[in-house]
Design goal:
This is Allantoate deiminase. Helices cover 35% and strands 23% of the residues. The chain has helices at residues 4-18, 35-50, 96-110, 137-142, 161-168, 198-202, 240-258, 292-313, 332-343, 359-363, 390-407, and strands at residues 54-57, 63-67, 76-82, 118-124, 185-193, 206-212, 214-223, 227-228, 261-263, 267-270, 276-277, 280-289, 316-325, 328-329, 351-354, 369-374. Strands 1, 2, 3, 4, 5, 6, 14, 15 and 16 form a nine-stranded mixed sheet that branches. Strands 7, 9, 10, 12 and 13 form a five-stranded antiparallel sheet that branches. 45% of the residues are buried.
Length: 408
């Protein structure tokens, strides 16, 4: 009988070891196509080989391991997540979803368990988009969605994506070779920490993801009239900052009324003096929902409210769309298998949607996808305080083992 507690401790130890590979001495920071990326691929690739898997690295720098089925012509099922991090990140975001299935495969292999399909585990090189400001580069390569214009994307040091690939030992022109055949592809399953507080609040170790929220982002620029703080009467002011403040509160109110999430996370104010009326303010908007139509109805209302505030306050408003991604709904059959596997552990099943983006969003273009969330401490992620509990990992291993054998 598999000792999931012992396996869970091994997962934790491996996360600790992988978490030490960083381009910064002060924090965990591992970015796409760096020497640290190559080092991480080497470490995880060694664990894959120890588990009895065949390993390779594709043209986009993604790490692969295959647990071969007896029939070489068998279909394939993919599990995975990403190995890159945000600057000053945590050591479980992404990494857990690669290390856990690799560790489980070693145990299943040792127990003599065999599956009628090839089980591939992929460690994506880029999900966060930290280096080249374009997310899901690793998983999008699998779907053949790398526009040629990406060759000219540059990092903060002015190094292009094409040059970075060359330095890594690959070539931008060969990226189409990373796209995978879909005829025999059964599906994709991604384990990820929740990055939110819902499972912890419910005292549940795991939950089934129903959908990944679609997001739209905008930049707004509000232009008023700068003036002396002591000489311009309140009723004659065109205060861009006050107008922006009212707009931001309108965003919050509309989002609450429609049951979606909307966030103003960045503000820039000019001239930004203590005795000067604001003449210009810029702010961002990130709006998300698991249902695109629900999000867009709320967005339309927000835009009308912002225009009305601008007119009433006699300021000019301009906006620019910066990002748009549709929601992705997880496969009903795979969700059902996950729910049954959780029930088999005598754990109540909770279904929730993901407000954060994941590699599964890209992979959904080529096959059915599913996600399993695992509880994380206080919902903290993208931060060094990111933490998980070993018993939760043990439960997750048992759920994944049951899931894979049920798929068989």
């Amino acid at each position: 009988m598999t000792d999931y507690g012992k396996l869970a401790q091994l997962v934790m130890d491996r996360c600790d070891e992988l978490g030490k590979i960083s381009q910064s001495d002060d924090c965990l920071d591992r970015r796409y196509l760096t020497k640290e990326h190559k080092q991480a691929n080497g470490l995880v690739g060694g664990w894959m080989q120890d588990a009895g898997m065949q390993t390779w690295q594709d043209e986009a720098g993604n790490l692969w391991g295959r647990w071969q089925a007896a029939n070489t012509g068998a279909p394939r099922f993919i599990m995975g997540s990403h190995l890159d991090t945000v600057p000053n990140g945590g050591q479980y975001d992404g990494m857990l979803g690669v290390i856990t299935p690799v560790t489980l495969i070693a145990a299943m292999n040792q127990a003599g368990i065999r599956l009628p399909f090839h089980l591939d585990v992929v460690g994506f090189g880029d999900e966060e988009g930290t280096r080249f400001s374009s997310t899901l580069l690793g998983s999008r390569a699998l779907t053949g969605q790398w526009p040629t214009s990406w060759a000219d994307l540059k990092d903060s040091d002015g190094i292009s994506l094409a040059q970075a690939l060359k330095d890594f030992g690959s070539d931008f022109a060969s990226i189409p070779n990373a796209a995978i055949e879909t005829d025999n592809l059964l599906g994709y399953l991604e384990l990820h920490i929740e990055q939110g507080p819902v499972l912890e609040q419910l005292d549940l170790p795991v939950g089934v993801v129903s959908a990944i929220a679609g997001a739209k982002r905008f930049e707004f620029n509000i232009t008023g009239m700068a003036g002396h703080a002591g000489t311009v009467p309140m009723n004659l002011r065109q205060d861009a900052l006050c107008a922006s403040s009212e707009m931001i509160l309108a965003v919050e109110r509309v989002a609450q009324n429609h049951g979606i999430v909307a966030t103003v996370g960045r503000i820039q104010n000019r001239p930004n003096g203590v005795n000067v009326i604001s003449g210009n303010t810029g702010f961002s908007l990130d709006i998300r929902s698991e249902f695109d139509d629900k999000r867009d109805i709320a967005l339309d209302e927000i835009l009308l409210e912002l225009e009305a505030i601008a007119a009433r306050r006699n300021v000019r408003i301009e906006r620019k769309a910066t990002h748009a991604a549709n929601a992705v709904h997880c496969d009903d059959k795979l969700q059902s298998v996950l729910r049954n596997a959780i029930e088999a552990q005598n754990i109540p099943v909770h279904t929730l949607f993901s407000g954060a983006g994941h590699d599964a969003m890209a992979i959904a273009d080529i096959c059915p996808v599913a996600m399993l969330f695992m509880r994380c401490d206080k919902g903290i992620s993208h931060h060094p305080a990111e933490a998980i509990d070993t018993p939760d990992v043990a439960v997750t291993l048992a759920v994944l083992s049951q899931t894979l054998q049920s798929l068989a």
